[in-house]
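Database export, one record per block. Field names are fixed; values are copied verbatim from the stored entry.
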Amino acid sequence: MATYSERMARFQALLRGKADLAFIPITTDLEYLTGVQRDIPNYGVTLHPGAWLEGAWVTSSSEPIIALPRMTAEFGGLGKIAGDVRVLGDWDDPAALVADILRGFGLPAQPRVAISDHAHAESVIQLQRLLPGAVFISATDILRELRTIKDADEIESMRHAGAVTEAAFADVIKQLKLGMTELDIFTEVDYQMRRHGSLGPTFTTSLYNSGPNLPLLHGQRLATWKRELWPPVSILFDFGAAFEGMCYDFGRTVAFGAPDAEFQRVYDLVMASQQAGIAALKAGSATCEDADAAARKVIEDAGYGDKFRHRLGHGIGKDVHEPPFLTKGSKTMLQEGMMFTIEPSIMQHDSFSARVEDVVLASPNGGIPLTSGFQSLIVIE
C-alpha cells in the first residue's frame, strides 16, 4: 500500500504544470491523501466560525498545511494530526490566517488554484477575494489519476466492507416477516450494519418494492415507508457498509410469498445478466461499454430491455459513485485495480421486479466479485 505521505507526494507531482495551489477540504479527497476521516453527514448544515478554510492547503513543493477551526480541531479530534496544523480561534479572522498561509507559498499574481469538487462555494468566494487574479480548476479531476486504480489495501478494505454488508444482510433476513413496513426493514438494515462494524450506511438505504398489488414508487420515501408488505411482492435491497473509508454497495431480491413462474423468470434473468457483466469485466481487453452491453443483452434478448432502466454499474471506492461508469458510450478501457458495481435490474411498476448488486474487481480474465452470497431467491412465507 502507498503511505499517505507517498500519496501526497504523487499528488504534488501531478500539480506541477497544472496548478500553483490546491485546497482540499475535509472530503473523500482529503481522506485519500492524508487519512483525515470523514464522518456521517447531517441532513442540516452545522457551521463552525471560519469553516471555509478547513482542509489542506497544498503546493507542488511546500509542506502541506492543514487549517482547522478550533471546534474541528478540538471536538473533531483532529488537533493532533501529524504535520503543519494551523488552528483558527473562535474569534480570529479566517481570511488573515489564510492570507498568511498563501504568503508563505509565494504564489504568482494569477495563480491556478485547484479545489476539490465538493468544496463549499464560500471557500471559493473567500479565496477569490484574497486572490482576485486566480483561475480555478478541479483538484478532484487531478486526483482521479490516482484514485481510479485501487491498491491492495484498498481492495482488502473493500472486501471487508462487503463482508460486513453480507453479515448484516444475513441477520436482516432472520428478522423479515410478512406484513412488515418498509420503514421496519430499512431501519433493521441500518442497525445491523452498525452492529457488524460499519460507521453507518454509505448512502441512504433504499428499498424498491413492487408486485401486482404494490406499485413501484421512486422518490416518495414518506409515502412508501408506511406501506405494509404482504404477498405477493418483491423486496429489492440497495445498501452498503463502510470500512476504513471504503464504501460498499450491495443489492439482493427477496420474495414475500412463494414466487410464481413470472417472478422466478425475472429473478433468473437478472442473475444471468449479472454473470455476463462480471465475465465481461476484462482488464486490458474490454471497455466500460462492452461490459454494459454484455449484461444488457441477456435482458434485452428475453424481451425486458425497456425494464433495465439504468447503466450496468459505476466505479466505487472511497465514494459510492466514482468514474468511470459502465454505460453505453463509455470507451474507457478497463484496467486492473478498477472496481465497479455490477447491478442489473428489471424494474416493473405494477408487477414483480428484481435486482442484484456486488462490487467487482476488474481483472484480465474477467471480474472478481468481492461478495457472492445469497445467489438463490430468498423466500419469506
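Remark 1: The first strand starts at residue 21 and ends at 25.
Remark 2: The mean pLDDT is 95.
End of record.
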